UniProtKB/TrEMBL annotation, chain B:
Gene3D superfamilies: Formate dehydrogenase/DMSO reductase domain. Pfam families: NrfD. It is found in: Cell membrane. Signal peptide: none annotated. The chain crosses the membrane at residues 20-42, 54-72, 92-112, 143-163, 183-200, 220-240, 260-278, 285-306, 326-345. It comes from Roseomonas alba. InterPro entries: Electron_transfer_protein (IPR052049), NrfD-like (IPR005614). This is Polysulfide reductase NrfD. Keywords: Cell membrane, Membrane, Transmembrane, Transmembrane helix. It is a multi-pass membrane protein. Belongs to the NrfD family.
Length: 235, 367
């Protein structure tokens, strides 16, 4: 991981000085290469859950789990109610607390910043599930191993966009190379105010939100939904 | 302050199952029981014979049952070898894979080397098992006992350290992320071990009132310390002396289930302390049960209760104990195994009166 981070800095330095790493084709390579990230423009999210469903279909997520979900809240401010959408997924953090805890080194960060689980090594101990402050991980009931958003690495490696990005009805999810100064993600981040979830934890998320209400950047306190679907063990 | 109502959200189910509670409970009891056996077997303190034997039975039985629960929590026990094939030494859990065998091998060697003379002396009364007793029995080997006890003491400290640190380092859960946690794990483990010895004193033949009183006095001290640690954690959160503790307290204080558990726990501890001091002879049944209950409930509340506090949602996640292997059946099975091991060890281990020779002590009538 150390060398990955160094190469990332090298990539950033190179891109800032104008010698940008090539963004296309987006094939992760060792050394200077892309650093994938996502920008979610909350004003464009209509809470349709198309991303939730397409992610499940694309990644064969068991029906009782999700890798991404659009949390929906009613927020009443100064007596005025409004709806707020918050698509949640793995943040592919720069300092991911899920990695050092893994007793067998099954979860790791690729040079392009994508945090993945090597299912051949994972023992299903769920330590990473505990350590992720974003609840982005779960134990897959079919494989009994850790599961999470992979930024659709299999698609990205093939030059495609992640499934949730491609299916996003409102065009709220934008995916791209944070090392490339000309990428949409970089341009949007440069021109608009963005925020990440729980910045105080120092995890340095690489999923950025445009238009995020500060009360939703942390654990929201209020009234829980009446029904939260949950996996139930057969008796 | 804006009001938030969650309209669409999901539950992340608990990922560390009741198996984890069972493992932490049993390994804690084993370590606590081992420490409780030291006054007799390592230091030869007079008056600790029966307590020492009961504690050693507890240490061995819990030490054998604990890894079973741990393996079950991996969802696929055959995966354990990967802990040794690809250890990530940044992870406390990885270190646990080395600390547990260190402790257990030290414990087994300590038990065997300490009991050697007693086993040999017991051979005559063992019928068809006599050759086995002769094989495993022999003269005292004080150097081996001391060396094994040292390994087991180091292993026990490492087990207490890693079990506490493994949970404490999880910053994502403010309730776990406190240095009070390893201390409280250790204190409730020792308290539970004394409670187990008190119960075994009643359940296994040969109850000794003096042993009960001695154990009750020790129990009062340990439970008192545990209450103080709990009070310190609460005070730091309540008065907002430290942000993480305040956050942790706030995440649970508004929920009745946590308030009731905390109140019930503190009241039970206070009752056990009062009983242990007021009636040290005769209250062992109750004080022992309360101490064991406290050790279990503390772990249950930390693990299951802690995981029912959402990281990113208001309220609490529901948890219903499943009846199957990852719930009630698993707990009942582990406890059944523990009872079986205790009965077996009690039957096989020489009685307390055939006192195990303290290191250096020769047994009368044997070379
Ligand atoms: S969001 Fe969670 S799972 Fe994803 S990289 Fe960060 S800590 Fe790891
Ligand atoms: S569940 Fe798998 S990836 Fe997660 S910490 Fe355990 S072994 Fe590592
Ligand atoms: S990037 Fe892929 S895996 Fe991640 S949330 Fe989107 S569809 Fe799911």
């Amino acid at each position: 991981m150390g060398s990955g981070r160094r190469s990332l800095f090298a990539g950033l330095a190179a891109s800032l000085s104008g010698t940008a790493a090539a963004a296309e084709p987006p094939v992760p390579s060792r050394g200077i290469g892309p650093r994938w990230g996502m920008v979610v423009d909350l004003a464009r999210c209509i809470g349709c859950q198309a991303c939730t469903v397409s992610c499940i279909m694309e990644n064969d997520v068991p029906p009782d789990s999700v890798r991404t979900i659009v949390n929906t809240y009613e927020v009443v401010k100064d007596g005025v109610p409004g709806m707020a959408m918050l698509p949640r997924l793995c943040n592919h953090c720069n300092e991911p607390p899920c990695i050092p805890v893994c007793p067998v080194g099954a979860t790791f960060q690729r040079d392009d910043g994508i945090v993945v689980v090597n299912a051949d090594v994972c023992v299903g101990c769920a330590y990473c599930v505990q350590a992720c402050p974003y609840d982005a991980r779960f134990i897959n009931h079919e494989t009994q191993k850790a599961d999470k958003c992979t930024f659709c690495a299999h698609r990205v490696d093939a030059g495609l966009l992640p499934a949730c990005v491609e299916s996003c009805v409102g065009g709220a999810r934008i995916f791209g190379d944070l090392n490339d100064p000309n990428s949409t993600v970089r341009r949007r981040l440069a021109s608009e105010e963005s925020a990440v979830l729980k910045p105080e934890l120092g995890t340095e998320p690489r999923v950025f939100y445009l238009g995020l209400d500060d009360v939703l950047a942390h654990k929201p306190e209020g009234t829980p939904t009446l029904w939260r679907p949950q996996h139930q063990e057969g008796i | 302050m804006p009001q938030i109502t969650e309209v669409i959200g999901i539950s992340r189910e608990i990922a560390w199952l009741p198996w984890a509670v069972t493992y932490f409970f049993l390994i804690g009891l084993s370590v606590g029981s081992f420490l409780l056996s030291l006054p007799h077997y390592l230091f030869g303190r007079p008056g600790w014979e029966r307590a020492g034997r009961l504690a050693l039975i507890g240490a061995l039985a819990c030490g054998m049952a604990a890894p079973v629960a741990l393996l079950a929590d991996l969802h696929q026990p055959g995966r354990f070898w990967r802990f040794y094939a690809h250890p990530n030494l940044n992870s406390w859990m990885a270190w646990g894979a080395f600390f547990i065998p260190t402790y257990l091998s030290g414990l087994f060697l300590y038990a065997w080397s300490s009991l050697r003379p007693a086993i040999a002396a017991d051979a005559e009364d063992r019928g068809i098992l006599a050759p086995l007793y002769r094989l495993f029995g022999g003269r005292a080997l004080p150097w081996l006992s001391r060396a094994a006890a040292t390994v087991a003491i180091i292993g026990a400290c490492l087990v207490l350290l890693y079990t506490g640190m493994e949970v404490m380092v999880v910053r994502a859960r403010p309730l776990w992320n406190t240095p009070f946690l390893p201390v409280q794990f250790a204190l409730t483990a020792i308290g539970g071990a004394i409670g187990l010895a008190l119960l075994l004193d009643r359940l296994l033949g040969g109850h000794e009132a003096a042993t009960e009183a001695r154990l009750n006095r020790a129990l009062a001290m340990v439970l008192g310390a545990s209450m103080l640690v709990g009070a310190a954690w609460f005070a730091i959160g309540f008065f907002g002396l430290e942000a993480r503790h305040a956050q942790a307290l706030a995440s649970v204080a508004q929920h009745d289930s946590f308030r009731i558990t905390a109140f019930e726990g503190q009241a039970a501890l206070a009752l056990a302390i009062l009983l242990a001091l007021w009636k040290p002879r005769g209250s062992g049944w109750l004080t022992g049960l309360i101490a064991l209950h406290a050790a279990w409930m503390f772990r249950w509340t930390v693990f299951i209760g802690g995981q029912s506090v959402p990281k990113n949602a208001p309220g609490l996640y529901d948890y219903h104990l499943p009846l199957g292997p990852s719930g009630l059946l698993g707990i009942a099975g582990s406890m059944g195994l523990l009872v079986f091991l205790i009965i077996l060890l009690d039957a096989l281990m020489p009685p307390a009166r055939t006192r195990a020779a303290a290191p250096g002590e020769a047994l009368p009538g044997r070379a």
